[in-house]
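WARN retry 2 of 3 for item q-0093 after timeout on previous attempt; input resubmitted unchanged.
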Amino acid sequence: MSRGHCILSHGFESGPDATKVTAVAEVAERLGWTHERPDYTDLDALREVSSVGDVRARLQRLVERASAAAAQGPVVLAGSSLGAYISAIASLQVPTRGLFLMVPPTRMGPMPALDAARVPTSVVHAWHDELIPAADVIAWAQARSARLLLVDDGHRLNNHVDASAQAFEALLRSL
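OK item q-0093 returned
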C-alpha cells in the first residue's frame, strides 16, 4: 500500500529523466510512495510565450495532475528550478502534504513571486547559483521556517545529487 504520491517536476530545458528528478524518484519508490514525472518539454519549447516557455500552462498541467492525485491520498510536490517554482505555486491550489524545492526561483518574470502553502517544506540551494541568488532563497526559506540545505555548487547541483536525494528522504520520512 502506498504512503502517498509524489509529483516530481523537472527544470526548464531538462526532462522527466533528468538526474536530480530521477534520484528523488528512486527515494520515493524505496520509501513506498508512488510517483510520476510529468514531461513539460513541449511547454518549455514555446519561446514565443516567454524566454522560459509557457509557465502558466506548465503550472496548469501540474495542478490538474496534483488535483487528481490528491483525490486519492496524500501528495508531495517536488521540483528543480522552474519545476520547484510551479510545485510551490501549485501547493496553494491543491491539498499538498509536503514540498521539496531544489534551487527555486523566487521570481519568475510576470508570474507571481514564489509562494507556497504552509506545509512541511525542504529546500536545497547552491551558494554559487548563477541564476538565483542564495540570499533570496535563504530569506524565503527563513520566512517559512523551511528546512534549508545550502551546498557549495552551482544552479544544476551537479555535485550534490546524492545530498539532494538524502534531503528528500528526510522530508518524506518526517511526513
